[in-house]
Amino acid sequence: MGSRFHHMLPVETRILGKGLFAKRSMKKGETIFIERPLVSAQFLWNTLYKYKACEYCLRALETAEGNARRLSGIPGLSLPHPELCRVRPEQHQACPQCQVMYCSSECRQAAADQYHRALCLGPSEDDPDHPINKLKDAWKSMHYPPETSSIMLMAKMVAMVKQGQLALLHSLFREALYDDHLSRWFVPEGFRSLFALVGTNGQGIGTSSLSQWVHACDALELPAQQREHLDSFIDQLYKDIEKETGDFLNCEGSGLFLLQSSCNHSCIPNAEASFPDNNFLLHLSALCDINQGEEICISYLDCCQRDRSRHSRHKILRENYLFVCSCPKCVSQMDELDVTSEEEEEEEGVAEGETEGDEMEDEMTDV
Could you give the CA distance from residue 288 to residue 291 in angstroms, rounded to a whole number? Predict the structure, then answer.
């Protein structure tokens, strides 16, 4: 969604100082905008562990029943109301050369037009000595789950340049990432700069055919006894999945979004991102009533992190996003001692390896 559409949206960006502001009043629950990413990619470990997603739009490719069987470890599992599953395997298409899968012919063509011709490995898709596979393996060896970004985001950006989309990239990324000098990407210092930009501006994406099926089941109007039976079945299914798979339920990746990346952080956000279409389309929704002229803020922290002390929140934001928060909540707590309580220190020690995963899960709960 390029800048030429901004006049049609209920928000405006103000580049100086970076921010997104409401052009009119909005009600709680209202969709502020829907946006497709400039570029997106599934996480590499997520792909390795057989989370099957469209290579272009990250739409989950497994049926809800197939997804439930794999995650629960119960191969003979049958889901009630299978007609509620929205996955259409008959529409899936593979790249003729490398067999990478897409959810539709439209996604396969869009990928080919934008970047895939440069990245297609053809018969070398499974060749460990191919340079792109070496790049993926090197990334995986340095970034174990829970993942928060992917080297393939940058690989796709380079591929887009190779396929002649430099002018488009220059315009869009200059607006999204505020970098006029794309050529700097290809020297060591520039690559470090690009790496930091992608890391701090990337938005987690989560898709799940099973989650979509559960939402559709919740919307069914059923007699009380049938509702109780269905709810009990779903509760037991999630218990089985937790026992077999743990917390990693979704196809996961990340993307760079032009408008969403303009949203500043607040520890008391008035908007949140979700992916209800089971693909990379980001829906930004109001968490409360928003007045005309008010800044639209999201939170880079999950719910548990937002409940921590000001000192703990600042520590997480400095380490992961390289800034000090001055939102109203942080300003109101300025007189707090800059120390972390013993209880929080113990929790942080236990949860240090879980923080990124919890954050990503929170970003992707409503898929």
Answer: 10
Q: Give me the sign of the Cα torsion angle 329, 310, 287, 43.
A: positive
pLDDT digits (tens, 9 = 90+) for 274-302: 999 999 999 999 999 999 999 999 998 88
Element (H, E) at 317: helix 310-321
Residue type, 338: D
Q: What share of the chain is helix, strand, coil (3-state, %, to 5)?
A: 45, 15, 40
Residues 6+ apart with CB under 8 A from 154: 185, 194, 195, 198
The answer for residues whose C-beta is within 8 angstroms of residue 105's C-beta and 6 or more apart is 91, 93
What pTM was estimated for this model as a whole?
Answer: 0.81
Q: Where are the domains of the chain?
A: 39-205
Q: Pick the closest to residue 92 from 101, 79, 80, 83 (CA basis).
A: 101
Strand pairing of 39-42 and 297-298? unpaired
Beta-bridge partner residues of 60: 53
Instruction: Tell me which amino acid residue 13 is.
Output: T
State the DSSP code for 15.
Answer: T
For the stretch 68-97, pLDDT in tens is: 999 999 999 999 999 999 999 999 999 999
Q: Using alpha carbons, list the distances in angstroms from residue 328 to 62, 212, 260.
A: 43, 36, 21
- Nearest residue to 58 via CA among 14, 11, 102: 102
What is the full DSSP assignment across 173-209? HHHHH--S-GGGGGSHHHHHHHHHHHHHH-EEEEE-H
